[in-house]
Amino acid sequence: MTARGSRFSKLRAVVLDWAGTAVDFGSIAPTEAFMRAFGGFGIRVGAQEVRSFMGLTKRDHASALLGLEPLRVQWRTLYDRDPAEADIDEVYALVESLLRVVAAERCDPIPGLLEMAEALRRDGIRIGSTTGYSREVMASVVEASARAGYSADCVVTPRPDLPGRPAPWMLYECARLLGVYPMDAIVKIGDTAADMEEARNAGAWAVGLAMSGNECGLDLEKYRALDPARAEEIRRAAAAKLTAAGAHFVADGPWDCMPVLERIEDLLRSGAGPAAVGARSEAELSSAVPDNPYLLLTPGPLSTSKGVRAAMLRDWCTWDREYNDIVQSLRSRLVALLGPKASSVYSAVPMQGSGTFAIEAALTSLVPREGKLLVLANGAYGLRMAEAARRCGIRVETKDCGELDPPDPLELDAMLSSDPGITHVGAVHVETTTGILNPAAELATVARSRGAIFILDAMSSFGGIPMDVESVPADVLVSSANKCLQGVPGFGFVIARKELLAQSAGRARSLSLDLYDQWKSFEEGGGKWRFTSPTHVVRALVAALDELEEEGGIAARNARYVENRDVLLEEFAGAGFAPLLSEALRSPIIMSFLYPEIEDWSFEAFYDALKARGFVLYPGKISKAQTFRVGTIGHVFPRDFRALGTAVREALARG
Q: Would you name the residues annotated as active-site residues?
């Protein structure tokens, strides 16, 4: 039985392979064991030759390798005869001896595995395993994996009366031990063709992993350092091989599997089983979650992961408990990003539309008609906040600090002291006009000390720059799904003190942007939106928040963004581009660069050349200098900015 409230009702068990699927990124242990074992007999065998038979039982694997003509030639040269069954047994015995050591040393869970296992157990899904390792090897692997946090409900290994893959018998035995039937309620996840054939032969679903295991064949460090173009080349070849072997779906690794499992649940609910879903579903594999033609190096919308995009591949009814529970959980998770003390004081209110919609909702609902707003602006987005207030009849004063300087907390203190009529202060945390990082903590502290309510446009900082309600004591924060949280466009959200939301009843100047009514609908309706909910965007943000947790939280994401920025600066400096801002003012979100002193240089031509090479930049927005911008947020990594540097040098060399 699945758990009450589970997202799954038809899918009941997931069976995983071990090396390259659950543990041992790159499936390194069996490859090393075979290469060393054959070396012990004087036979040279390459990693790719070993990997071509991965997934079989290890004796069958040894037999298949000795059946390769190049290896048979080596054997005849050394031993003056063809390899016999006794020789296969000897090689296999040495492989087993080595595996008992090296396999137990490589039991670190693959990224996303522990989170997937936890989610499956929470939904009442049983977890089984089949493997090509022997019972003796698995004894140490299971023990080491358990110490690292992963275990399965059953472990099935090949034996004389239970032949291994690609035969279905181990998977049948797994189903028996788990007490799960029919076989179409089971998904097999593995990284080899033999895994896919095992699943197909047993009548179960087959999900192949292209990048975490045998087909990619790199350890985690080398995988993360892959050039994007090379990674895509490997991914396509792996997907083609796994699909040809019978995979219904292919993911990069465990981190990408939950959306695939949900897709399988949808197919089961529609009456489609693994036998009926054949070539059509395999074609869906490459088209349902297409690869991006380029990286969006912008401050949002930005490049998202396949997992985030895959989360949008199903429809959701907005009236039932299942979806509304997702919305309530999403609201709680957004507040929790502001620290453990936030949930008792703050509440999150998602609002349909872009971040500007959410800004306008906050201003027109939280600033009373007798109130006065002071906006501290040093770029287009601060000025936009002031304009939104002005158009809605709010009394507003704008302090324009210029595009290249941050607001001064001491100057704010003086302004509030001289004008006690100012009730609210608005500012932008990261002004993406230039990429400047404004002193939000100091501004919030000054505003609150003077009795003013501080509204922070955290559009381009929330989720990417560490802050909590103590370090940045803003009363109201506004952000969007498609910025540092790495979701997609469709809604913004306001996180405000509950007391301010409660006091805002009847203040709104707009029906659709009434923050109080939206908040009450969520609170009293258990997650119900007032008007049409952006269901797909909600699901994408849930997946994005899962990925944020898997990455290690905001601190880890901030570290990646900082490294992205630093690599970008290094690469662009080498190509002759100077940054607009001084080091002290630069955020890790977006960088502005001055046009180079190159005769006949054109940003439009530069933009087109880089887009053709897979990178989209952002034009400049300031009035005092000719600039362009490069975003460093989203599902992008330092290796992408190394590749960008190469593309820039190529583009400049070609004029």
A: 17, 58
